[in-house]
Design brief:
Largest sheet: 5 strands, antiparallel
Number of helices: 3
Helix content: under 10%
CATH superfamily of the largest domain: RNA-binding S4 domain
Mean pLDDT: 89
Shape: globular
Strand content: 35-45%
CATH topology of the largest domain: Structural Genomics Hypothetical 15.5 Kd Protein In mrcA-pckA Intergenic Region, Chain A
Order of helices and strands: EEEHHEEEEEEEEEEEEEEEEH
Structural class: mainly beta
CATH architecture of the largest domain: Roll
CATH class of the largest domain: Alpha Beta
Amino acid sequence: MTRHGGSKHLKRLNTPKYLQIERKHGKFLVNPLPGPHPKRFCLPLLHIVRDLLEIVDNHREAKKLIGLGYFKIDRKKVTEGRFPVGLMDVLSIDETNTHYRIVPDSHYGLILHKIPEEESLTKLCRIDHKTTVKGGNIQLNLHDGRNILIHVKDPKEPEEDMYKCMDVLKISLPDQDILKKLEFKENNLALIMAGKNIGILGKITKIEKRFGPKASLVSIERDGTHTETLYDYTFVVGEDQPEIDLPQRIND
């Protein structure tokens, strides 16, 4: 056991299917640290640098480069190779002025999508939970592990509490100011972020909220075809147009 818990390495044959690696080339792959993104649905930074970007040839060189602070996640330096990079995170390499956003893809699960510099200054985050904290203020718990505190002047009439779970916030990086709220509602655009229909972008046509053992469902329409997905697999990305740049094959 390491002090972080769990092994530093994962057998390649046991890795998630979406990882773009050669499973018979070597025995082990770096294991992501516990973090804001599910372990089975994130990309270790070292894997990105060595295998996806192919900046270096081996583990040692990738670890050294990361340790020198050349890579930023959401505009903050990361020096740990096992750092988990997940959905909507922004990877920046200042030395080459290149930037990437992690987005869902129907073939690979998660991919790096190259974006212009101005895009790297914002991020979409889904509100997964809300809590009331001291003073009646509202804490928004977002999908990537960050929290945003909404100050309330009058707890008895919290006019500032205009946010709901499943809404998506467009925030600035790294200071996480709220720039825009995207409501989880019919006619807004959403991405399917997990499951067998991952990577589909379309308009929400129906939200069927269920209570009890049956899962809540969302219907998404794209080019006249309706796809049903689980409530939790839905990620709003815009109203009439996506608020972020997306790969061409997602838009088509």
